[in-house]
Amino acid sequence: MASVTGPEIERLIQLLARLPGLGPRSARRAALTLIKKREQLMVPLSSALQIACERVVVCSNCGNIDTCDPCTLCSDPRRENTLLVVVEDVADLWALERAGVVNARYHVLGGTLSPLDGVGPEDLTIDRLVARVAEGGVSEVILALNATVDGQTTAHYVTDLLAPTGVKVTKLAHGVPVGGELDYLDEGTLAAAIRSRTPF
Amino acid sequence: MASVTGPEIERLIQLLARLPGLGPRSARRAALTLIKKREQLMVPLSSALQIACERVVVCSNCGNIDTCDPCTLCSDPRRENTLLVVVEDVADLWALERAGVVNARYHVLGGTLSPLDGVGPEDLTIDRLVARVAEGGVSEVILALNATVDGQTTAHYVTDLLAPTGVKVTKLAHGVPVGGELDYLDEGTLAAAIRSRTPF
Predict the structure, then answer these.
(1) Is B186 a domain residue?
(2) If you measure CA to CA, which chain B residue comes closest to A19?
(3) Which domain holds residue A131?
């Protein structure tokens, strides 16, 4: 390909191919789209990326990604201060906010404990979480971690560390997803749904 | 979402979502990946886009996209001057070059005739193609257009316009794709494969 087009375009394609969801072929398509829509898409995207490079920061309080520190969520006075939702990743925080189901503060751990991948407590923001809770004012910590082995291991670890603070620690309910069909669910989910059945 | 993260990040996500192959959800994932890999990915991509914005041009001779005009292909002295391959789009040119199956010059039409979409001959580079062939030196024009109704309509139109020049006009063979199974092929392809059968 080096002889077909300039190295600058090749470089653009290679970088686009490193985005999740884009492979080498779709990266080429994306590059061609960008070049064809120069004014409507390539120029704005270039400047949006430059602004993001310069201004995006990780909130030193909760770990959210924003252009100010503390982030929009941490400095929002309408948020419930007594409720702290712990998530693995910023994507999970955004998912909960899109759903708009909880009015709380957040804490992003930055991952889960994973001995096999060499991720220990020091790689996550667990210390910072314990410090935030110890500062007082929080009456409930909701562990909104993924229902994976690593997620649940992390949940247990965090719960143990929070025990001395006496704060109430809860976790998300397991059960049948809304709109889900029993036939397609795994046994673990069905067992959890039976176990946690509620009065009709 | 406006209250969760800065408007700059929202804008980046919206622009990424306009790339082919990325939807709103994968654009968010891509934006988070970019932000997490700031030095390895976001900064290089930002500068690659800026360079592309400034330097990418359409070759005034063949319609290829490059950072020089005439493009790398048009100024390559090792290319066969007598063979001219006509394609709809730059992506088709790149696909043929990746396959490395023909050592020729190219001509990018910029689309196909499509009365329903309001695309007429004046929207394509057909005039320029006829002028290039009329200049002489070309002994064969290969119409490498898509095997769609619009592609074939365009092929007929171009062939008629090229007839006065007396140049040989050929088109790509139709048949069973290499590695393809008969059971999965449509009747049109099977009919073409039978019609154009070759001695074994």
Answers:
(1) no
(2) B30
(3) 78-171
